Amino acid sequence: MKLEISAELKYIINSPGTLILNIHALRSQRQVVLEEALLMEPYVKVEELTSGLDENRLIRLDLSDQKNISISYKAVVDNSFREIDHTGITEISVGSLDSSVFPYLYPSRYCQSDKLYRFANNKFGHIKNPFLKVLTLTNWIHSHVQYLSGSTNSQTSAYDTVTELAGVCRDFAHLGIALCRALTIPARYFTGYAYKLIPQDFHACFEAYLGNEWILFDATKLVPLNGLVKIATGRDAADSAVANLFGNIQCQEIQVSCNAIENNFDYFYYEPSKFIGLAYQ
Questions:
Q1: What's the topology of domain 82-239+267-279?
Q2: Most buried residue among 82, 146, 158, 162 by CB atoms closer than 10 A?
Q3: Interatomic CA distance for residues 15 and 206, integer angstroms
Q4: Could you tell me the pTM of the whole model?
Q5: What SS3 state is found at 134?
C-alpha cells in the first residue's frame, strides 16, 4: 500500500537552542521509503541521527540565530502487513522472552503498569488467549474512555486516564500499553502518520508482543490499521516525541497529511469474532 505523507512545522526561535525532530518515516523490511525530501526556510545545518532499539530516525538542528524557521518533510512510503491467525496461541513466559523486549515489560513514565496490576487482572486476567485479552482491553478503552481533545496535557499518564476516563490518542495508547504490561504482555508506543484521520495530525497507538510478533492495536478506532506509516516506537511518548525543544523555542504551527496513492485496498479493522492480528514488521 503506497501512501504519501507530509509534515509542515513552523517554530519561533527566541534564543539560541537545539531542535530535535522525529518526523521521518521509519525504514524497515515492511516499510520502504521510496522517496523523501526535507526542506527548511531559512536553511540551517541538519544532523541525521538514529535513536532507540528500533533505530528511530531523528534530525538535530542547532539554531544559533534568533529567527523563525519553517520545516517541510514529504515522503512516499510503500507499506505491507501480515495477517496472523492467533486462534491457538498461548502466553509466552518471561523466561522465554527475547531480552530485546524486556524494556517493554517494565513500568515507564507514562505507563505505570505496576499501579494498574490489580485493575488489569481483575478485568482481563481470566481471558486465556493473549490476542483476545489485548483485543478485549482495547475495546474496553474504546468503550469507556471518551476521546476528548484538550482534556489532557503532556503530564497525563495512563493512571490519570483510567481515573478521568477521557483523553486523546496518546492517552489511549498509554493506557493500552500499561494494561498489557500489567498482564505481563510486552507493549510499546507507536507514533506515525495515519490515513483517513480527521482532522489530520500525528497519530499514536500501540503494539503488543504476541506469539513472537509485534501486533498493532488502536483503541481510538479512528483509522484503518493498514493505513499507518510508522515514525517511531518506544516505551511511551517520552521516547517517541515528534519534537524536543531545548532553549526558548516555540511551536507556531503543525500541519500533517497522509494520503493513499493507491485506493484499491480493503481497510483493516479487528473483528471481535476473529483472532486475526496485523503485524507491522
A1: C8orf32 fold (3.10.620)
A2: 158
A3: 36
A4: 0.94
A5: helix
